[in-house]
Amino acid sequence: MFFKKSLIAGAAIVVALAAAGPLKAAEFVYGSWVAAKHGVNTAGLEPFFKAVEKDTGGAVKWKLLAGGQLVSARSTLPGVRDKLVDAGLVIPVFARKALANNNVIFDMGPWGSDPVAIAGASTETVMLDCPECQAEYKKNKAVFLGGFGTTAFKMICAEPITKISQMKGVKTRAVGSAARWVKALGGIPVAMSPVDGVTAMQRGALTCLHGPVPWLVSYGYMDVAKSIINFPMGTPRGLSLMAMNRKAWDSISTANKKVMFKHLPGASARATLIGYVAADVEILAQAKKRGIMIVPGEPEIATLMTAHKKNELTAIPKGLLKVKVKEAVANKIMASFIKNLEKWEGLSAAAGNDVDKVAAIFKSQIYDKLDAATY
Question: Which of 95, 144, 176, 273 could crosslink 99 through cysteines, CB 3.0-4.6 Å?
Answer without folding.
Answer: 95
